[in-house]
């Protein structure tokens, strides 16, 4: 028994605004049926004593601690800018007035 029918694939294609030929509908119905069957098999294997996880290996935080370090002054940062206005980089306008 198929988990997804050709008519359901056609309905999904219409919702997605995809124009699929009859051959493509049959092909995708077969592929989606295999995918749904594979997902069902994984659901059968999942045991209640196995906690859900998002990764196979544990992840650790790799952020470094925040430390205050010397940095450029506004004058130094703006010294190479082609145009400056109110201690900021001046760039050409790309949006109209209504934005």
What do you see in this structure?
The protein is mainly α and about 100 residues long. The chain has a domain at about 5-45: Orthogonal Bundle (Histone, subunit A), CATH 1.10.20. It is about 40% helix and about 5% strand. The chain has a two-stranded antiparallel ribbon. The longest helix is centred in the middle third of the chain and has 24 residues, at about 20-45. The chain is flat. The relative contact order is 0.08.
Q: Could you tell me the number of beta strands? A: 2
Helix content class: 25-40%
Shape: flat
CATH architecture of the domain at 6-45: Orthogonal Bundle
Radius of gyration, in angstroms, nearest whole number? 28 Å
| Unreliable spans | none
Report the mean per-residue pLDDT as an integer.
Answer: 87
Strand ordering within the main sheet: 1-2
Question: Which CATH top level class of the domain at 6-45 fits?
Answer: Mainly Alpha
Strand-and-helix sequence, N→C? HHHEE
Number of helices: 3
- CATH topology group of the domain at 6-45: Histone, subunit A
Q: What structural category characterises the helix and strand content?
A: mainly alpha
Q: Terminal Cα separation, in Å?
A: 55 Å
SS strand fraction: under 5%
Q: What's the story with the biggest beta sheet? A: 2 strands, antiparallel
